[in-house]
Write a structure and sequence with these properties.
The complex is a heterodimer of chains A (114) and B (114).
Chain A lengths: L3 E4 L2 E5 L4 E7 L6 E7 L6 E7 L4 E4 L2 E6 L4 E6 L8 E9 L6 E4 L3 E6 L1
Parallel strand pairs in A: 2-11
Antiparallel strand pairs in A: 1-3, 3-8, 4-5, 4-9, 6-7, 7-8, 9-10, 9-11
Chain B lengths: L4 E3 L2 E4 L5 E6 L6 E8 L3 E9 L2 E4 L8 E7 L2 E6 L8 E8 L8 E2 L3 E5 L1
Classes of the chains: A mainly beta (114), B mainly beta (114).
């Protein structure tokens, strides 16, 4: 059964600090891995999308890594801001383009405190 | 700027009533997704369409849920009859499906069935 496990479940850090969120998956065959940020009361917003051949991708202060051999991904947030407080969801897809079967992680809830 | 829109944003209804949620995908996007999000289950894919044709609705309870795309600018998700366990936030997302894995989410419809 395809699974996506995220850790930690929740995290509290001080503003300005860095943090790393983890995503382990067993989805096969692998197509792509996406990280989303979801603010409370809003829809998820895409941060990064990585395919099999990509092992790192950045979007501003967000950097995602992918190790397709170990089936692990991480999302690193640099110099955190209060606005980074949100749920971060890892999604792994099999199949074609932006459809196909997607397996969602339960998310990591990040709280950034002043 | 182009956004996915969903109506209504909030809906409270009594058990047994019919509920219809609407989504307007981003103009030019040919792939539309319906998701449900609850605290217990996280994000779940209910159904998705490409070029208005349903490609996968295996995530949807068939006896009470139905999803359609009457035209390229409107997707609907209907629940009849609704039950308290249907209470959740329902998200619509759209994408281009042209070798892109990007999905753009709407703001969601928060459904409460009493």
């Amino acid at each position: 059964k395809n699974q996506v496990e995220q850790s930690p479940q929740s995290l509290i850090i001080l503003e300005g600090k860095n943090c790393t969120l983890q995503c382990n998956y067993t989805v096969s065959p692998f197509s792509n891995l996406r990280w989303y940020k979801q603010d409370t009361g809003r829809g998820p917003v895409s941060l990064t999308i990585m395919t099999f051949s990509e092992n790192t991708k950045s979007n501003g202060r967000y950097t995602a890594t992918l190790d397709a051999d170990t089936k692990q991904s991480s999302l690193h947030i640099t110099a955190s801001q209060l606005s980074d407080s949100a749920s971060y969801i890892c999604v792994v897809s099999e199949g074609d383009t932006n459809a196909g079967k997607s397996t969602f992680g339960d998310g990591t809830t990040l709280t950034v405190k002043p | 700027d182009a956004r996915v829109t969903q109506t209504p944003r909030h809906k409270v209804t009594e058990m047994g009533q019919e509920v219809t949620m609407r989504c307007q995908p981003i103009l030019g996007h040919n792939t539309v997704f319906w998701y449900r999000q609850t605290m217990m289950q996280g994000l779940e894919l209910l159904a998705y369409f490409r070029n208005r044709a349903p490609l996968d609705d295996s995530g949807m309870p068939k006896d009470r849920f139905s999803a359609e795309m009457p035209d390229a600018t409107l997707a609907t998700l209907k629940i009849q009859p609704s039950e308290p366990r249907d209470s959740a936030v329902y998200f619509c997302a759209s994408g281009t499906g042209q070798g892109s894995y990007e999905q753009y989410f709407g703001p969601g419809t928060r459904l409460t069935v009493t």
